[in-house]
Amino acid sequence: MQTNFTLAQLADPDVATSEKILRTCVHCGFCTATCPTYLLLGDELDSPRGRIYLIKDMLEGDKPANEEVTTHIDRCLSCLACMTTCPSGVDYMHLVDHARARIHETYRRPLFDRMTRALLAAVLPYPGRFRAALIGAWFARPFASVFKRIPGLSEVAPMLTLAPATLPPRTDADRPGVFRPEGERKGRVVVLRGCAQSVLDPGINDAAIRLLTRQGVEVVLAEGEGCCGALVHHMGRAEESHVQVRRNVDAWTRVIEDGGLDAIIVTTSGCGTTVKDYGFILRNDPAYADKAAAVSALAKDVTEYLDLIGLGEPTEASGLTVAYHAACSLQHGQQVTAAPKALLAKAGFVIREPAESHICCGSAGTYNLMQPEIAGQLRDRKVGHIEATAPQLIAAGNIGCITQIGSGTDLPVVHTVELLDWAYGGPRPQKLAGLQ
Ligand code: SF4
Ligand code: SF4
User: Fold this and answer.
1) CA–CA separation, 144 vs 228, rounded Å?
2) Would you say the CB of residue 27 lies under 6 angstroms from ligand 1?
3) Which residues line ligand 2 (CB under 6 A)?
4) 365-407: per-residue pLDDT in tens?
5) What's the CA gap between 179 and 135, in Å, rounded?
6) Which ligand is nearest to the CA of 37?
7) How does pLDDT run across 121-131, given as a tens digit for each residue?
8) Strand arrangement of the beta sheet that strand 413-415 belongs to
9) Quick check: pTM over 0.85?
């Protein structure tokens, strides 16, 4: 694609990066075939190619974001299916990240939209606040249908509907510490505690820690670490996300300098994609560029690391039939596709792969809260394909997908690592208590 940026515009390193990305697009349109929003809405401006044109026009013309650009970029799930499909290697992720930051800086959203976004950014990345908000949501839940009918407050309804009826208790994986390996130490890793997942389902990291330590891996839960920054990053709140990213880089660099690390393990693939991108996010920060790149180089999805170290033979081969849901952030964002299925199959589960496995379930960070209609349609489509495989349960590697899919089916939805922990000597996941 031909571009016409001035030298003054290209002096901005973010614009220079986006210009390079824009030039790689040959407008072939192959990406439209796998874009969930184009699939549902059929509007070129809700396809990757259409969004690329909108972004080009905004950046090239040095224009503030307008309502049209904002509407179509907001509808993008950042699922990155378009990147997997694109034959020209267009780096859509960094382009849309830049566009979201430009929108945040230059577009004045309607009041309720601004308030909702500010609230989500102030609550979700902080486990204490998120826990308190979920308890509040539980009390407000009976009024969800009332909110739905009030203009301007209708977006509150899906937030209340998605809030769980009960919250699991806190566990040892909730605070900094070191979990010693069983037997000889074969490795040393950090496990990201995360934010929303640590409140919604702390059992996921508990399972990862049990499994890793049984395999001889020491697990460090780092002091000073917090949210990975993805939640605010995907809202275009670049400065806030950079603060969160730098804090984690500092926390993990201290662990690296104090005993070394083989990997930084992430059990929420949406966060994993962002941690792997820290090097890019802080590339223009001289004080952090090298440290952030070192952190990104160590980041691994939990299944990637388990595949690397090898798990041996399972102690409990259940033979249960599992529909494996490939989270977009894992399959498109990190290109981790084979390891989770191979590990589950080796652990004795029968794996079913639903149709349209490349299409998003509609979770996408805060997308199911901000765009509930599209997210609901994608969820129902996903659940239909999953249930058509007649599984006994569903496995996924991302808490967002687990919550989203779980809200549309009676089948139990668990994290891949919970099944692996069970198969290799850990407890049966509580959600599977009734399964034979
Ligand atoms: S497939 Fe790639 S090159 Fe083709 S239009 Fe889409 S982003 Fe551009
Ligand atoms: S990231 Fe997903 S929703 Fe956004 S343009 Fe690409 S395929 Fe479409």
Assistant:
1) 30
2) yes
3) 35-37, 48, 51, 76-82, 92
4) 889 889 999 999 999 999 999 999 999 999 999 999 999 999 9
5) 30
6) 2
7) 999 999 889 88
8) 350-352, 321-325, 393-396, 413-415
9) yes
